[in-house]
């Protein structure tokens, strides 16, 4: 590492070259590239020997099939980011399976498992180190897990789940853990501070059950209500929900509605088939409505090209004919017999009688005027662009 | 003043012509001094129309008169005669117009027919009515009372 | 936008509905009865007030209102569910002396008049049931207070003398003669041979007969006199407004007087000037059908209903020959710097059904719907629109009058817009004027013959009053400032030529209701038709072998002549 000549150097590798050729060749090498990367990561450069040893080490310890790309990187098989991502995915999968299992078990057992409070410590084992042992350990652990059978895996996940489970009482807010005296206060608090609106409050029957179900989703399943984010524990999911403002009970699609339909009672709405629907407009209305299969069974609901005939007789018109429905034409004048007789006997001319001479005279006058205008135009065309004081900039 | 750049400058020649004309003693005669009708008409068509040319079978002449020209001559003669403002002729012409087809000679004096124009009718009517007025003034229309008269109704309300 | 009626409907309305069925005849008879009764009522009112002195003199407005109320209330209770349109076909108009048509003042009219002794008063009215009209006009004389006669009743001091008497005589005799002629047309074999009529009664025959009567009484037939065929809903109420197709009738106008004068002239040779005698009526008419233009070449056929409207005015001899024309009078003062004392406001209006327009004022829209719904196509007065119109004489009159007055004030506002948009035409009040011939002859004829007087409604072919002289109506109008007034006598009656029983049903007029007043004229019937006329009159009086005429009798109704309108009307005059 002594610089003999100041001409040809490589600053990232702390090298000096006598010949430019050497420099160029060095620049092309992998070692130099690796040193560049180190420089970017603010690490001191390594010499060639160290580099070569690293390379050889990597090729030995490499057992995976898809490590070809990673061989290029120096000792970095999987980046930290990638590693974290992989871990997360694995955990998510595990947790999902566990949740399913737990559900089944719950349904079967009907009891509630009590687990000790959160094992955050385990989760925070994520370190910022670039130690391969960690990753290797994790990789080994993964491999260990894979050896187990499906069921055993699920059981294990379930156990983790059950261990980590938090029971949130109905009088406690599930997002910020604040306590209240009654469930209604809790609901009100959740609505006011977090914006959790319970859909169809008129038809809600089992308020407590709904709250419990939601809180289990968070406490047991650690899954977000609106998106498919899987948290590691309750705190994580709470943080996610609060930060992303996902405190809502989705009620858009059928499946979402069905999910919480157990707590509702919609029987009172079923008898509404008989009466006239307020939603439908008569021929002054707009859209053609599609006949849906979910509607209560109709007998005479059919649509022609531009009209929808409802069973109670009203006809809804299509919006493409809107302009005609909006028209207010003068109603046809009904004549009495006397008036009709007079009009039948009428022989007056009501049209303007065309005076041919007058028309020809008028046409001649127009012709003359046009000719005058033409002449004027032709005359003016000669000097209409006249600019007596025009100063052409190019003719300085 | 037309400048050097102007397009609307009068051309050289025109100015020269004007100046030369001014200098010269030749003055164009105005049209209204010369009576066009006094000059002999240089129109073969018109000559053919009026039959003024000598038509002999021996000499082959190439004077032509198209229908269009003939009609034009006819019309112009009408206008010319109208211009001379003969009131009698006006009346007669009016009547002739209402007739329909009538031959117009070069001299321009058509015959009067038995039917009369509306103006003439009105004149007749007026004359007749004036006659009535005069007769009444003279006392020829006085109604004489003859007989006992007529009584209608009776002495009751 | 022009309205049109389908061919089939036209056929039904104009032909089928005019066939004389028993139902149609019943309706005509009812209309005739009501009109006769109304005339009797009004004549009794006039008699009581002016002649017998039982009551304070009724003014024209009161008579009009009473007459209209009677007609409307009489027709209210008949044919209630079968007939939609019935009522007044012509509001009562009281035309005094030289006024010819149209004077029907409302109660708040400034120019409301009462009559004087020596006035000849024409009462004109008409009513209709389902369009079947019966019109009536009768001229009666106002006498000075009567003298006691032998049997204790009052009688007039003497007959009316002078030129008005000539007019009354002429009108009466002419209308009776035409009626007899029409009756004879049903049985043409009974037509007197001296009339040279042949086998049919034509329009030209009627014209010549009437002209001869007029001449023998030294009278002139006033322009707008006519003997015309009327139909359902087409009873001449909209004559200048609607150009009625298949117009069948004799119409007198100034052109006839012009022709008569020409024939009198020594300088006029008719054979040579045949085209002057006959002028082309269709030249300036803006109608699509020539049948709308009246001509004399028609034959009176059975199964038709005719309206005989004869107006006579005495010809002046003092000022020499002249023309008798009509002048419109209205309440616009200050015309021609003449000291005009009679300024009546035209109060009779007719709806022109062919015009439609989007109106701005709410009152005018209301008024139009009221007119279209309640008042049929016949002329109306504003007081008819009021809800308390057919006045109940038994109840409180002043209250009803106040209501009518109030309704009228709001209606007037709407009416102005209707008139401006030509939805409603004002019927002008016209009076007869005598124009000396020299004045007429001394006017220059304008070159354009398009100077029609829009105010004066005329029949389609008769726009030019003096076609041979070439004078337009506007020109004539300007000449009227140097004209004199002439009294006019009028007789109008409606007759039905019933072909079923070959008899003539006289719906209005007649000896019982339209009895001629006591007049004496120094003239008597003369001319070529004297014999024929006397024969005709004899035939009508012959019950067995003559012309069968049936008259519609007035109904016997208790008329209380102490209708105390006059006392209360003082309040209403604003």
TrEMBL record, chain A:
InterPro entries (UniProt xref): Matrin/U1-like-C_Znf_C2H2, ZN622/Rei1/Reh1_Znf-C2H2, Znf622/Rei1/Reh1, Znf_C2H2_sf, Znf_C2H2_type
Similarity comment: family membership: Belongs to the REI1 family.
GO BP, sorted A to Z: ribosomal large subunit biogenesis
Protein name: C2H2-type domain-containing protein
Keyword check for Ribosomal protein: no
Gene Ontology CC: one annotated term: cytoplasm
Subcellular location: Cytoplasm
Stored PROSITE patterns: ZINC_FINGER_C2H2_1
UniProt KW Transferase keyword: no
Keyword field: Cytoplasm, Metal-binding, Repeat, Ribosome biogenesis, Zinc, Zinc-finger
Cited Pfam families: zf-C2H2_2
Domain C2H2-type, chain residue ranges per copy: 10-32
GO MF entries: nucleic acid binding; zinc ion binding
Domain of life: Eukaryota
TrEMBL record, chain B:
Region (Disordered): 1-42
Compositionally biased spans, kind Basic residues: 16-25
Bias type Basic and acidic residues, positions: 29-41
Name this polypeptide is given: Ribosome biogenesis protein ALB1
From TrEMBL, chain C:
Gene Ontology MF, one: metallopeptidase activity
Alphabetical list of Pfam families matching this protein: Peptidase_M24
Domain of life from the UniProt record: Eukaryota
Key word DNA damage present: no
Biological process terms in GO annotation: proteolysis
The UniProt record lists the keyword Protease: yes
InterPro entries, per database record: Creatinase/aminopeptidase-like, PA2G4/ARX1, Pept_M24
Gene3D superfamilies the record matches: Creatinase/methionine aminopeptidase superfamily
Keyword terms: Cytoplasm, Hydrolase, Metal-binding, Metalloprotease, Nucleus, Protease
Domain Peptidase M24: 28-143
Cellular component terms per the entry's GO annotation: cytoplasm; nucleus
Main location: cytoplasm
Cellular location(s): Cytoplasm; Nucleus
Family: Belongs to the peptidase M24 family.
Purpose of the protein: Probable metalloprotease involved in proper assembly of pre-ribosomal particles during the biogenesis of the 60S ribosomal subunit. Accompanies the pre-60S particles to the cytoplasm.
Protein known as: Probable metalloprotease ARX1
Record organism: [Candida] arabinofermentans NRRL YB-2248
Lineage: Eukaryota, Fungi, Dikarya, Ascomycota, Saccharomycotina
């Amino acid at each position: 590492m002594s610089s003999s000549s100041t001409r040809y150097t490589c600053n990232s590798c702390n090298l000096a070259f006598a010949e430019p050729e050497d420099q160029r060749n060095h620049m092309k090498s992998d070692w130099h590239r690796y040193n560049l990367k180190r420089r970017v990561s603010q690490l001191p450069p390594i010499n060639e020997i160290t580099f070569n040893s690293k390379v050889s080490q990597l090729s030995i310890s490499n057992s995976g099939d898809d490590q070809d790309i990673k061989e290029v990187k120096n000792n970095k098989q999987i980046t930290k980011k990638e590693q974290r991502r992989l871990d997360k995915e694995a955990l998510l999968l595990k947790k999902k399976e566990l949740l399913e299992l737990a559900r089944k078990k719950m349904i079967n057992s009907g009891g509630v498992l009590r687990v000790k409070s959160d094992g955050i410590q385990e989760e925070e084992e994520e370190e910022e180190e670039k130690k391969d042992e960690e990753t290797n350990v994790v990789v080994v652990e993964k491999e260990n897990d894979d050896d187990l059978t499906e069921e055993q895996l699920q059981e294990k996940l379930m156990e983790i789940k059950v261990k980590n489970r938090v029971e949130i009482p109905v009088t406690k807010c599930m997002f910020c853990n604040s306590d209240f005296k009654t469930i209604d206060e809790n609901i009100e608090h959740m609505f006011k501070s977090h914006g959790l609106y319970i859909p169809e409050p008129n038809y809600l029957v089992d308020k407590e059950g709904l709250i419990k179900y939601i809180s289990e989703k968070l406490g047991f399943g650690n899954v977000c209500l609106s998106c498919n984010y899987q948290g590691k524990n309750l705190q994580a999911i709470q943080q996610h929900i609060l930060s992303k403002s996902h405190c809502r009970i989705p009620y858009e699609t059928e499946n979402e509605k069905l999910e919480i339909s157990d707590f509702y009672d919609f029987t009172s709405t079923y008898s509404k088939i008989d009466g006239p629907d307020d939603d439908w407009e008569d021929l002054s209305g707009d859209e053609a409505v599609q006949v849906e299969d979910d509607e209560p069974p109709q007998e005479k609901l059919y649509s022609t090209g531009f009209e929808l005939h409802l069973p109670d007789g009203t006809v809804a018109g299509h919006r493409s004919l809107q302009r005609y429905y909006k028209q207010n034409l003068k109603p046809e004048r009904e004549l009495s017999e006397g008036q009709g007789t007079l009009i039948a006997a009428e022989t007056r001319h009501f049209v303007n009688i065309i005076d041919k001479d007058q028309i020809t005279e008028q046409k001649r006058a127009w012709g003359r005027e046009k000719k005058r205008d033409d002449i004027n135009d032709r005359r003016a065309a000669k000097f209409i662009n006249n600019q007596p004081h025009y100063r052409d900039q190019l003719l300085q | 003043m037309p400048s050097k750049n102007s397009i609307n400058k009068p051309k050289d020649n025109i100015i020269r012509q004007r100046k030369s004309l001014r200098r010269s003693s030749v003055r164009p005669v105005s049209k209204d001094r010369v009576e066009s009708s006094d000059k002999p008409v240089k129109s073969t068509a018109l000559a053919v129309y009026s039959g003024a040319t000598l038509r002999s079978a021996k000499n082959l002449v190439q004077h032509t008169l198209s229908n269009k020209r003939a009609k034009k001559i006819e019309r112009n003669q009408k206008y010319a005669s109208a211009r001379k403002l003969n009131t009698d002729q006006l009346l007669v012409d009016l009547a002739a117009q209402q007739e329909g087809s009538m031959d117009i000679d070069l001299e321009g004096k058509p015959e009067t027919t038995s039917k009369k124009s509306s103006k003439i009718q009105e004149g007749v009517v007026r004359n007749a009515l004036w006659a009535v007025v005069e007769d009444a003034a003279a006392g020829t229309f006085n109604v004489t009372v003859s007989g006992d008269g007529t009584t209608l109704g009776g002495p009751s309300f | 936008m022009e309205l049109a009626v389908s061919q089939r409907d036209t056929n039904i309305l104009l032909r089928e509905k005019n066939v004389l069925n028993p139902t149609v005849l019943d309706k005509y008879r009812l209309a005739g009865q009501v009109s006769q009764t109304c005339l009797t009522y009004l004549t009794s009112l006039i008699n009581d007030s002016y002649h017998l002195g039982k009551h304070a003199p009724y003014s024209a407005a009161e008579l009009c209102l009473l007459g209209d109320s009677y007609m409307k209330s009489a027709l209210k209770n008949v044919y209630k569910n079968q007939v939609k349109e019935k009522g007044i076909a012509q509001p009562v108009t009281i035309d005094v002396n030289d006024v010819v048509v149209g004077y029907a003042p409302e109660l708040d009219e400034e120019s409301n008049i009462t009559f004087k002794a020596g006035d000849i008063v024409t009462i004109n009215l008409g009513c209709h049931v389902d369009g079947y009209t019966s019109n009536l006009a009768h001229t009666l004389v106002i006498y000075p207070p009567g003298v006691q006669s032998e049997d204790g009743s009052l009688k007039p001091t003497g007959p009316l003398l002078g030129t008005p008497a000539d007019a009354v005589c002429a009108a009466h005799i002419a209308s009776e003669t035409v009626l007899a002629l029409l009756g004879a047309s049903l049985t043409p074999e009974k037509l007197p041979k001296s009339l040279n009529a042949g086998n049919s009664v034509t329009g030209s025959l009627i014209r010549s007969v009437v002209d001869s009567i007029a001449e023998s009484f030294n009278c002139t037939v006033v322009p707008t006199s006519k003997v015309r065929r009327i139909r359902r809903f087409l009873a001449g109420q909209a004559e200048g407004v609607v150009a009625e197709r298949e117009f069948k009738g004799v119409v007198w106008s100034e052109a006839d007087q012009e022709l008569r004068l020409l024939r009198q002239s020594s300088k006029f040779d008719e054979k040579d000037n045949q085209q002057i005698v006959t002028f082309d009526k269709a030249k300036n008419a803006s109608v699509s059908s020539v049948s709308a233009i009246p001509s004399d070449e028609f034959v009176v056929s059975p199964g038709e209903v005719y309206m005989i409207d004869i107006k006579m005015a005495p010809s002046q001899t003092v000022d020499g020959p002249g023309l008798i024309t009509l002048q419109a009078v209205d309440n616009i003062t200050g015309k021609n710097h003449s000291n005009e004392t009679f300024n009546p406001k035209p109060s009779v209006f007719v709806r022109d059904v062919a015009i439609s327009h989007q109106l701005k004022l709410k009152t005018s829209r209301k008024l139009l719907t009221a007119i279209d719904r309640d008042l049929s196509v016949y002329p109306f007065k504003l007081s008819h629109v009021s809800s308390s119109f057919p006045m109940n004489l038994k109840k409180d009159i002043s209250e009803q009058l106040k209501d009518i007055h109030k309704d009228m004030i709001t209606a007037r506002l709407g009416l102005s817009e209707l008139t401006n948009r030509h939805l409603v035409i004002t019927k002008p009040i016209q009076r007869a004027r005598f124009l000396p011939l020299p004045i007429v002859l001394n006017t220059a004829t304008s070159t354009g013959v398009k100077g029609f007087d829009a105010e004066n409604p005329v029949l389609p072919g008769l726009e030019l009053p003096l076609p041979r002289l070439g004078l337009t109506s506007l020109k004539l109008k300007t000449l009227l400032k140097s004209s004199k007034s002439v009294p006019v006598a009028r007789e109008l009656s409606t007759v039905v030529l019933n072909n079923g029983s070959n008899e003539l049903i006289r719906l209005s007029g007649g000896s019982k209701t339209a009895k001629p007043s006591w007049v004496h004229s120094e003239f008597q019937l003369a001319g070529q038709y004297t014999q024929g006329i006397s024969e005709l009159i004899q035939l009508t009086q012959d019950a067995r072998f003559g012309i069968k005429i049936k008259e519609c009798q007035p109904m016997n109704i208790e008329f209380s002549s102490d209708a105390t309108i006059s006392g209360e009307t003082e309040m209403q005059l604003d």
